[in-house]
Amino acid sequence: xxxxxxxxxxxxxxxxxxxxxxxxxxxxxxxxxxxxxxxxxxxxxxxxxxxxxxxxxxxxxxxxxxxxxxxxxxxxxxxxxxxxxxxxxxxxxxxxxxxxxxxxxxxxxxxxxxxxxxxxxxxxxxxxxxxxxxxxxxxxxxxxxxxxxxxxxxxxxxxxxxxxxxxxxxxxxxxxxxxxxxxxxxxxxxxxxxxxxxxxxxxxxxxxxxxxxxxxxxxxxxxxxxxxxxxxxxxxxxxxxxxxxxxxxxxxxxxxxxxxxxxxxxxxxxxxxxxxxxxxxxxxxxxxxxxxxxxxxxxxxxxxxxxxxxxxxxxxxxxxxxxxxxxxxxxxxxxxxxxxxxxxxxxxxxxxxxxxxxxxxxxxxxxxxxxxxxxxxxxxxxxxxxxxxxxxxxxxxxxxxxxxxxxxxxxxxxxxxxxxxxxxxxxxxxxxxxxxxxxxxxxxxxxxxxxxxxxxxxxxxxxxxxxxxxxxxxxxxxxxxxxxxxxxx
Length: 489
What we know:
Blueprint (H helix, E strand, L loop, with lengths): L5 H9 L16 E12 L5 E11 L1 H12 L9 H22 L3 E10 L7 E10 L3 E3 L4 E5 L19 E11 L5 E4 L4 E5 L2 E10 L2 E10 L5 H8 L6 E5 L10 E12 L5 E11 L1 H14 L1 H18 L3 E10 L8 E10 L3 E3 L2 E6 L16 E12 L4 E4 L4 E5 L2 E10 L2 E10 L5 H8 L5 E6 L16 H19 L1
Parallel strand pairs: 1-7, 13-19
Antiparallel strand pairs: 1-2, 2-4, 3-4, 5-6, 6-12, 7-11, 8-12, 9-10, 10-11, 13-14, 14-16, 15-16, 17-18, 18-24, 19-23, 20-24, 21-22, 22-23
Helix pairs in contact: 6-8
């Protein structure tokens, strides 16, 4: 399931212009000290007046370097100090607007003001704007949610293997003022984590209709990725939830994918596997993925997917005798992005007790993959066809299924026509569906079995665990192989 890239949003929204892009001066290991405050004054319709204050408190060399860069504009006499500072403010304003807009925040009435540049004790930036639809409304349970990130984006930051050659000390405050007649439901709770000298602490308080969340972060120089993971990896308390006596307006996209999987099974047990994934919606994301494929190089992407599928199938015990991958729809703006793959395989299915066994996941791997609300209206369908060679016979096939939990639906229909078996499974999830409801809907249906015989049966099957995880190959690896390259970018 596709999801809003909250981690990227955090880094853009909450990392100040003096964040961890700086480097240490000379051979001395520096510790950059920051203060950050985000005030969110919510309106009844979910929009908010947001004020972000970022302060560089040290080291002094970093403050002086930034001041020098700004004030150098005055040396040729073409600019006054006031004009140089104004130029700096406009540059920072453009940066904030660009970052927040790319993260999906809709802004109006933006402004930026700086302080401390002339005095030199610190450098402070104050950004203010109206953020439209900042709080999300979910008719699923009639709740509103506001997202804050006490980790300041460090939980998802790409960290070099040796860490950064500087330390960071950041004190952060998030002030959320609820709208009139709102009832607070939940907010981030205290949290403490330490790794060597590094420390991450979260605290919170409530007074009237105002929620205050504070975090203190100290990251020692050269902290490795494992250190970052230890500090931030277990933290998942990002939401302030409330309800109101009035309903809001939902803003969301649909996520639609179709997966076509066909197994042509020959009398000697060889399988010709055809997998086609269609990414239909959201169109904006589909267009972006197409552009990234073209930018990266269609041949490079095709070879990467081919290699990924082959390795995955081989790891699960299959012998890959050949394969090809084609990417379709790149030149058609509104057409789905299609990843089409074909493989000739041996040992793909398991042979036991005189018959072959094929197991798959009709839930498309979605039963246990959620840790937060569903951020799209999801409609994913698997079309599975098994064609047995002449003389083959199906001994066991799945039963039809139709389930519904709070408007979320799971169906599977099974149609047999001689030696051809067609299975269609569909998962529909409402926007805002909770993980526990999705688990209740799907958890007991993650494995379905087809058992069949062939006219000339062999005794050499795949590894005994092959089909226990074949759902990953059919459902998840298709997606992983198709998009892993741009996720890594």
